[in-house]
Amino acid sequence: AQSVSQHNHHVILSEAASLELGCNYSYGGTVNLFWYVQYPGQHLQLLLKYFSGDPLVKGIKGFEAEFIKSKFSFNLRKPSVQWSDTAEYFCAVSNTDKLIFGTGTRLQVFP
Amino acid sequence: SAVISQKPSRDICQRGTSLTIQCQVDSQVTMMFWYRQQPGQSLTLIATANQGSEATYESGFVIDKFPISRPNLTFSTLTVSNMSPEDSSIYLCSVEDLHPRTDTQYFGPGTRLTVL
Fold first, then answer.
1. In sequence order, what are the residues at sequence separation of 6 or more whose Cβ sits closer than 8 angstroms to the Cβ of residue A54?
2. For A49, A56, B16, B108, which has the most beta carbons within 10 A of its beta carbon?
3. Binary contact (A101, B1; C-beta < 8 A)
4. CATH no. for residue A95?
5. Structurally, what CATH architecture does the domain formed by B20-99 represent?
6. pLDDT digits (tens, 9 = 90+) for B78-97
7. pLDDT value of position A54
8. 3-state SS, residue A84
9. Which distant-in-sequence residues (6+ apart) come within 8 Å of A48 by Cβ?
10. Domain count, chain A
11. Which residue of B has its CA nearest to A89?
């Protein structure tokens, strides 16, 4: 069965620090990869997605993610975080129409 | 992307009762999904609801407990039946359109359910 692992459960950073959130999945076939974000009090929003092509994907708000097939990874990065990036981040994988979510990473950014 | 609304946004219910959650989309969509997000946990797919067919339930979820309706391409309901405190969760609907196909799901705001 497919599974998604997010090893960072809670990350605390100061503004301007760089961010990398890990995401690993287990599935041997072709997958679509997603990062969703849930800001406090708001609903789940799509941050970026990878289907094929350039493994470095750019999303909204300066986020990017890199698909490394050999490592089954899709890590999320941002070179300089802002206080407004405080949120919960979910990695998700699908190979059909079903999305499998990771357990989420809570990011707190302090000014 | 589609605009999705859910009603109610939150509710507190007594054990043994049932609650029906509505999901409304501002455009016609092919596929609708219902998820559960238990406290401190990730999202788990309950079922897929396509218009004109029976909902398809994931392992661990059954129709008697979570009956779903999908009467048209813009609306669906999920009922949480005979509730117990373990059903306290956020319930979310999501949509994915096949025309054109985007392979991307967009989520509603969720319904926060507390069962006493």
1. none
2. B108
3. no
4. 2.60.40.10
5. Sandwich (2.60)
6. 999 999 999 999 999 999 87
7. 94
8. helix
9. A34, A35, A57, A58, A59, A60, A63, A64, A65, A76
10. 1
11. B42
